[in-house]
Design a protein that fits this description.
By secondary structure, the chain is α+β, with helices and mostly antiparallel strands. Helices cover 26% and strands 47% of the residues. Strands 1, 2, 7, 8, 13 and 14 form a six-stranded antiparallel sheet that branches. Strand 3 and strand 4 form a beta hairpin. It is found in: Membrane. Its main location: membrane. This is Late embryogenesis abundant protein LEA-2 subgroup domain-containing protein.
Length: 206
């Protein structure tokens, strides 16, 4: 192959690379524009959660060993505020926490699809049997018990997919919801919480 032919092939390769680069530079902004356009048209909004009720069946701390036993039934509602977007709840875990420490195991809720403006209600039981708590958490719980009220955080950890246009479904998004619940608790004489006591008597937005 002559030097002239080699030079011709090099020029052809450079032109091909430039064309490929130009195509990519045009294609990427086009895709980003389409995504932005879909977002502006649909305006996806996260679901709105409300803690409607929290019923206490067990809430007792063993002072000697700092072991906390908790049994609650909570009623949570989630509303899809979107006019054009449905929400797929692929995985939803609910658990209770106190002072930042998880005090129950996660309860898995059934996967569900939520249509436009629909409301979904769950009423799961959440349990924590003799969960070790830190000395700080135990001391804080005793202080709250003397006051007669304790705030437990009902938390929702979910994986959702949203906005469906025809057959288009988005990727998975992480959704974290924190709902405060105030329950009656008396640590004097190891009374704990009253069986079947209601912690929330009206809906609290989360």
């Amino acid at each position: 192959m002559t030097e002239k032919e080699c030079g011709h092939h090099e020029d052809h390769r450079r032109k091909l690379y430039r064309h490929l680069l130009l195509t990519v530079l045009i294609f990427i902004p086009f895709i980003l524009f389409i995504i932005l356009l879909i977002y502006l048209i649909l305006r996806p909004t996260k679901p709105h959660f409300v803690l409607q009720d929290a019923t206490v069946y067990a809430f007792n701390l063993s002072a000697a060993s700092n072991l906390l036993t908790t049994t609650l039934q909570v009623t949570l509602s989630a509303r899809n505020p979107n006019d054009r977007i449905g929400i797929y709840y692929d995985r939803v875990d609910v658990y209770a926490a106190y002072h930042g420490q998880q005090i129950t195991v996660p309860t898995l809720l059934p996967a569900t699809y939520q249509g436009h403006k629909d409301v979904t209600v769950w009423s799961p039981f959440i349990y924590g049997m003799e969960v070790p708590v830190s000395p700080y958490t135990g001391a804080a719980l005793n202080e709250d018990g003397i006051a007669g009220k304790v705030m437990v955080n009902i938390r929702v950890d979910a994986k959702i997919r949203w906005w469906r246009v025809g057959t288009f479904i988005s990727g998975k998004y992480h959704l974290f919801v924190n709902c405060p619940a105030f329950i009656n608790y008396d640590c004097r004489n190891n009374a704990g919480a009253a069986l079947g006591a209601t912690g929330v008597k009206y809906g609290l937005p989360c």
